[in-house]
Amino acid sequence: MELNDPTLYDAWAGVLSWLYDDNRFGEAWTTGRVRLFTQMAKALMGKANWTISKIYDKKYTPPGTAAVWMRKDGGKELIHHIHNGIAHGKSRTTKQSDGLWIFLRDFDEKENPIAQIRIPMEYITRLHRIYGQIERGEI
């Protein structure tokens, strides 16, 4: 998909609306639903070359490891970091041979880096699709 592909705009309009919704994991999202989303997100992310690094107490987690998956709500945390990276302008896209990729960084309130993520942009739309299927009870 090219940056100027109109289908990208259509897909991203819904995705961005979802990412910026502060209530995306509201009351209807039980612990079981969040856990299911985390499991499905983990399965999706395991299918490609991607990195998510989490930085705790200035200790860097090497790329390819995913501290986020140690938590039952890791999928929710992943979406939170994606939202922050885009909303705070800490993201960039690059065109690779296999499509568009996005690199995002998230920082705490003291501007210390707490997460960095590098994934195909298509995966964010897939995460949105998974979220919708769970929310509608299709999964």
Portion in strands: 15-25%
What is the H/E string? HHEEHEEEH
How would a crystallographer describe the biggest sheet?
A: 5 strands, antiparallel
Number of beta-strand segments: 5
Approximate helicity band: 40-55%
The structure class reads alpha+beta
Q: What is the average per-residue confidence, as pLDDT, rounded to a whole number?
A: 77
**Going across the major beta sheet, what is the strand order?**
2-1-5-4-3
Radius of gyration: 15 Å
- The coarse silhouette is globular
Terminal CA distance reads 28 Å
Query: How many individual helices?
Result: 4
Poorly predicted segments:
56-69
Question: Could you give a quick summary of the protein structure above?
Answer:
With 139 residues, the protein is of the alpha+beta class.
What does this structure look like?
A five-stranded antiparallel beta sheet has the order 2-1-5-4-3. With 139 residues, the chain is of the alpha+beta class. The relative contact order is 0.19. 42% of the residues lie in helices and 22% in strands. It is globular and about 35 Å long.
List the helices and strands and how they pair.
Elements: H1 6-19, H2 31-45, E1 51-56, E2 59-60, H3 74-87, E3 91-96, E4 99-107, E5 113-120, H4 121-135
Antiparallel strand pairs: 1-2, 1-5, 3-4, 4-5
Helix pairs in contact: 2-4
